[in-house]
Amino acid sequence: MKVITFGELMLRLAPEGYLRFVQADRFAATFGGAEANVAVSLAQFGVDAAFVSKLPPHEIGQLAVNSLRRYGVDTSYILRGGARVGVYYVEKGASQRASKVVYDRAGSSVATASRNEFDWQKILAGADWFHFTGITPALSDELAAACLDACRACRAAGITVSCDPNYRKNLWSLEKAGSTLRELMPYVDVLIANEGQAADLFGIRATGSGTPGVGKPDPESCAQVAAALAQEFGCRQVALTMRTSRTASDNDWSAMLYSGGKSYFAREYPVHIVDRVGGGDGFCAGLIYALREGFAAQEAIEFATAAACLKHAVEGDYNLVSVEEVRALAGGDGSGRVQR
Amino acid sequence: MKVITFGELMLRLAPEGYLRFVQADRFAATFGGAEANVAVSLAQFGVDAAFVSKLPPHEIGQLAVNSLRRYGVDTSYILRGGARVGVYYVEKGASQRASKVVYDRAGSSVATASRNEFDWQKILAGADWFHFTGITPALSDELAAACLDACRACRAAGITVSCDPNYRKNLWSLEKAGSTLRELMPYVDVLIANEGQAADLFGIRATGSGTPGVGKPDPESCAQVAAALAQEFGCRQVALTMRTSRTASDNDWSAMLYSGGKSYFAREYPVHIVDRVGGGDGFCAGLIYALREGFAAQEAIEFATAAACLKHAVEGDYNLVSVEEVRALAGGDGSGRVQR
Amino acid sequence: MKVITFGELMLRLAPEGYLRFVQADRFAATFGGAEANVAVSLAQFGVDAAFVSKLPPHEIGQLAVNSLRRYGVDTSYILRGGARVGVYYVEKGASQRASKVVYDRAGSSVATASRNEFDWQKILAGADWFHFTGITPALSDELAAACLDACRACRAAGITVSCDPNYRKNLWSLEKAGSTLRELMPYVDVLIANEGQAADLFGIRATGSGTPGVGKPDPESCAQVAAALAQEFGCRQVALTMRTSRTASDNDWSAMLYSGGKSYFAREYPVHIVDRVGGGDGFCAGLIYALREGFAAQEAIEFATAAACLKHAVEGDYNLVSVEEVRALAGGDGSGRVQR
Amino acid sequence: MKVITFGELMLRLAPEGYLRFVQADRFAATFGGAEANVAVSLAQFGVDAAFVSKLPPHEIGQLAVNSLRRYGVDTSYILRGGARVGVYYVEKGASQRASKVVYDRAGSSVATASRNEFDWQKILAGADWFHFTGITPALSDELAAACLDACRACRAAGITVSCDPNYRKNLWSLEKAGSTLRELMPYVDVLIANEGQAADLFGIRATGSGTPGVGKPDPESCAQVAAALAQEFGCRQVALTMRTSRTASDNDWSAMLYSGGKSYFAREYPVHIVDRVGGGDGFCAGLIYALREGFAAQEAIEFATAAACLKHAVEGDYNLVSVEEVRALAGGDGSGRVQR
Amino acid sequence: MKVITFGELMLRLAPEGYLRFVQADRFAATFGGAEANVAVSLAQFGVDAAFVSKLPPHEIGQLAVNSLRRYGVDTSYILRGGARVGVYYVEKGASQRASKVVYDRAGSSVATASRNEFDWQKILAGADWFHFTGITPALSDELAAACLDACRACRAAGITVSCDPNYRKNLWSLEKAGSTLRELMPYVDVLIANEGQAADLFGIRATGSGTPGVGKPDPESCAQVAAALAQEFGCRQVALTMRTSRTASDNDWSAMLYSGGKSYFAREYPVHIVDRVGGGDGFCAGLIYALREGFAAQEAIEFATAAACLKHAVEGDYNLVSVEEVRALAGGDGSGRVQR
Amino acid sequence: MKVITFGELMLRLAPEGYLRFVQADRFAATFGGAEANVAVSLAQFGVDAAFVSKLPPHEIGQLAVNSLRRYGVDTSYILRGGARVGVYYVEKGASQRASKVVYDRAGSSVATASRNEFDWQKILAGADWFHFTGITPALSDELAAACLDACRACRAAGITVSCDPNYRKNLWSLEKAGSTLRELMPYVDVLIANEGQAADLFGIRATGSGTPGVGKPDPESCAQVAAALAQEFGCRQVALTMRTSRTASDNDWSAMLYSGGKSYFAREYPVHIVDRVGGGDGFCAGLIYALREGFAAQEAIEFATAAACLKHAVEGDYNLVSVEEVRALAGGDGSGRVQR
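Predict the joint structure of the above. Result:
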């Protein structure tokens, strides 16, 4: 049985170290994209994971495909065609200087793909889980329709669907995102979000709390919001990530899972950041792994939170950590002692 | 008095050394574009050169602007707006393995600019030379119109116009290129081309020669073609470059100038290639410099040819060589002895 | 209206990452110098800034000039001549290991320039602010005289003068520095220093405090010292930086401004250091910007302190941050969240 | 139908550029090995290729596996176990300075594997071609036995076997190599060697020629030797490579194929060397591709020779070129003109 | 008078920055090994230090020798022969992600050397101190015998012997390590260990404490353990290091010395880690230096602890810090202020 | 018995690959200087070689010392003091673009040393050969005097003296060089020069030849010049290098030796240049080695010429090649075949 994720894979161009964009004269060239990141992380966990997308037939498209093959992701459902690989530029922040991302993704092969290029019957054969984020339907109306097609096919085939709304303001308005995602939510079994997105996209807020998404997340508020999301959309499980950004170098990181009517909170990790991008995707992969493996709720949220914690210490979008490493951390060893 | 060039400036991403695209995990990030290359080369010659274009307001756009400021090009006429910096990927060939270029330039700020964003009265004030290549009108109908506007303004103001047709098959068809360029040619005082382009774009061929653009260029054919071009379009001077590609590592390079009814041939250089891209632009800059300085025809073509020869030994698009270096080579010293 | 800064620009050679000098086999090659750093920072803020100096005509001198042009500094007043570009080697410290700087600046073009090479009438035309640091007069008696010339020309023309004493023990003795600077101080409108320098150079100390410059700066002492400096030299404003070095990796950073008889204290930032060099210059540039823009005293010191705080997160001497970034931090957002 | 290759994959450590070993403080880390190189090259040609070997379960073993997955090689038959990844250090020569290889491969996982770990029935299912080189049986008696097992299984299943004797003096003596290979030869359908190896290993020499393997290979001698090899071992086809080493930077490269009682000679290429290692493996892959595709003999040897020619212009062991690129060169275009 | 250390020197291969092994495509190539690290650190302190080992005659062996010569270590007693340089791969951890070491040292030249290749009479002539760690006898029975030979020769010649048990589970079992080391201990004058090793190897535990080696070391327990070790083995001095691993990025570091029947505790340093490997070796070198110089016990343990603290801020195995730097830190200046 | 060389060691800063100075943002940092280069090359040949100079006590001075220790040169006679390490910037040329060197060596520690800091009695004890070049006396009158002191001490002690005039126009005039060197020549046993220097410095020209130093050296002229030099200065042997610079990438290289009244010519090598600097020093070292080993004249000049040929294929100033490598080339194998 395998996991399918669907979205865009972009070339990620990053200046070396802590150089700013205007200082750059070379870029580290890796690849990333929310759903591809989830597939790669799952493959590191030993899961049979496939990524669905479209990439141009030229060498840069091939480089993108190879970045997934290298880490064991099944790329046989990636369509080849269209004109370009989307690009995103990322500048790593430090201390009080924030990280910056400049997107150059319009017109990419997948963003210009049409709904019926994706044969979901064939793609989903042998799958038991389908994951997408709000970025995919944001790329084009055709892709939003493709997401709906996929969700329906999953529902028909009894395949679990997970979704992270992952709102990107450069891609669509809150209004369009809210209405599009509301159409997809009924098919989503496992919803992964945070307090801010619940408020902004779906108008779901805890009573009496501060501004959602600002400052330290409040467990009580999160519990309320998760329960409300589960009720509103009929999700089996709702997970909320709980990040506190102290500076660009230091964050606190935790998460909770609402399952079976109860809220389970993971321990909180003080993280010294190597690469912040893809933390949420690492969380999604951890949660998918844990739930597919049948972990109990507390164990599942600890695993997913530890996986995402480790992501912050890995360069690039991909969370290249093993099940053993995640288990060790979730089991309490965050000492970072040398493993010989 | 200054020189104005008009076109697109792209981010140039190149794997290190001789690595192929599929081996790359970092890219050297420089900038280039035919007309910008000419401006940079002229600035190295001490000429007051300005580049006209449009670049996005974000940091990657700024990085592009800075790449020109660094080398002394006046960037005050570059509009800031639009969405993206065009990108081109270049893989350096060697021996029998050809260099490869993958363009990703559609939708760039300048390609989506409109004709009337460019205020030629203001831009051309104080200029005595205007240079563009066939790439600029190929980017969009609006830019083709902007080129025409610029040419007309030059004619009115007595500003010399030079053009290199620089045909790019990914941008437009030979038919569209031919018809668009034919409209612009009457304004061109100095035309810089090669035998292959003369044949393909304008149907001008030497009698009895082989396939133009294949194998060693024939001086006699070049003389015929240059004369025919001068006559057809009323150009004051026509220069043809004469390249023989032996392998990706070794070329022979020469050029000729038709001026005042006579053909002048430069010496031929065997070049060991460091970076092949921008050789033609280095030639244009050399010729513009020489003609503006009032060099005699033979001296002018020797200078331009030597300038382009040196470009093949400089990394990146920009021909970062001085007048003294060009003069030394044109004057006969190609020994490459260490200058202490 | 523009800002003029005057001093030396040096080649800065730094081993990669945290390598020590004796481990180096390549050096990052950037440029820096207190006054040039201020000019670059101001140019990033959109200010018309020019740097005055002297650099050799050879390619290394050109590389230095280009490092300024790239970031938009006006280099047209830089004289070209003399023999060498001063060099400084910097090794980045971490944790308890201190950063190290080895200077090799004797005999540089500017240090061997003579007073009358600088035509202040011409240079200062169109300027409303002149900035120098104590390093410039320390380089030679001729440059000290040139500083005096510049200061007098500013006084005559109503141009504001700012100065950071910036004592360097390798360049001159405390005695010589004190006497030379005392001659210049009467022309200084805005003095930027710290408690240690006030004590060492001018013998101005707060009553009953500990050793100035050691441990956590005391606000009360700073207020006293600033007031005393303002009174002694008749400065319009006096700013003192307040740094606490916990380790080479972590500092606390704040500052205060004495203006109109009152002391204004900025918030204190815990900084995780990327590059410590140029922090004070970033502060000077922030203060000059704020005062030229007419910020109120509290707003001005918050802006300058935030600017310098951000400098600690930027590689190299130059503080490559925008007004928007400084304002965001001064306005309270130090969370370092990713800006997409 | 797929191609199976069997051998060792080593970590290849190379100083940057033309640095000598004693100058190195970093190594480019790629992977290579004669049979893996063939698999990678075939995968670039679109062939379904699998590589059989054994690698340790730790991360360096995984890095080796990933180097193959990245380029599309099926790694599902690679056993995981044993202690180490073999290493080879390579220093790139230039001009009269020869390239150097230092092997550190003893005790690698595959060299210490036992014969019966390889289940040839399962591995060869669905295959139509099996390739190995003399390096594999040289690694251990167990691997020699495994080669014999594989050959017998191929014979039984009608799978074509190709072999390149690839003698390495550090691994075994000429005597042991000769006797071991003689045992395997009867199963080899396609033999790929050169004049020197035919003489050294099998005592087969052309009449009246000079020292085999020294100086310019003589076509007549090659024809004699190939015919003798075919007769001696009953091979369907024998190919001989014909290299002339002028310097470490420049070689002449050609090859011939003896098939159906006739000798076919490819054109000779003057190659400017980027990376010399893996040239012969690139030839093997080219020949396997051509013969599997049913090319006529002349076409086949031209294709294989052109493939190997291109390998000399690709960094690393792997010949990352496409069928289209090989065809273009074999078809006569070695001009290296930029492909846009 | 000189110090002799005896052990293995390995090639250390590390991905750049914080990259994981599976992301690596180049490795920083330095050298390290516990005893060589001590020799290098001593040489930086101005001590005449020689390293005894065996390395292959090829260029990689030479590179290893050169890494020591570069830093002033006497390499004239290094035997040249055998087959390989041991390799170890190290991946730098960060935050909760632990550092990883993969050893590939079996079969190295020194591990396959025989006891009587080492002529201790000659080697120890002119020496007053001999240092080894438990790694050397772990490499082979022959080397264990060689250690015994060396210890006996030292006892006979009145040369001080120091030893750090340095247990490596990949090299030998606790049982074998315990019994082998017990045989050597009677010759050890200065023992350097930690609480965990005392318990695991020698069964020496403090009464009523927690698990030795886990969590924050307890001074009282350390005092007990050190006294017990001194009594058990008749050591003149016993030093115990006291590390608290908070994360892979942040540790607390201290140590104590038991001497003359009393325990001396150094101050504790919060260290922000640049490179964790070699910290213990830096401590050994610091202690050897201090004791040879005749420092009082408190001064000695402060010096050794400060030396090791600084090691955490130096890249690579070698602790490249001077006596002046260690003294400054031991004397209280951990502010990391820039040294100009 | 050992060889002593005396001169300056400079930090050599070179942009990466073929980048021009104005493109550089990092420099490879190695060290070089004519006499140090000779010492390093001799040490690679197994000769006991010491280098005499003066370097500052700071870390950059130490880095310079370490660059020699690493390659086995005895640095115990290097004085530590003075202010700076001389610097030279080198830009690698290619094809028709010449290499460039910018010197920044004035005021270096050795150039400001005084004559009596060098205790030649002590330095020359145990030496049988002393080598210097014309650069050393050019640095200062004090160093010229020190050279004279050294020469006289050699004559008294029967130590062979070799000298390469190595004229540098930036350091002194031809007149001053000629007169200073003429004073030293009577002590020189082995003179190493070229036709151009013989003419420019000493006015010694072959009859009827072209301009010395331009174009292809003529054997007959060289024989005449060498004989004349030997006669004029009473040298035992005179060697002349014979370089033909075709381009910056390709040179022809040969040399001759006049000894015992006869001229011996080495074979000529076509060299593809990796690094041109230090070729002459490689020749000197080769000749010193060969003559000290008692090679016959023809064998000696072949060895020295082959050594220098190989230098052109080694990065940096130092000729890091072994006796075996030189012998192989001198013996006729210039094929550059991979050495496994």
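The longest helix of chain A spans residues 141-157.
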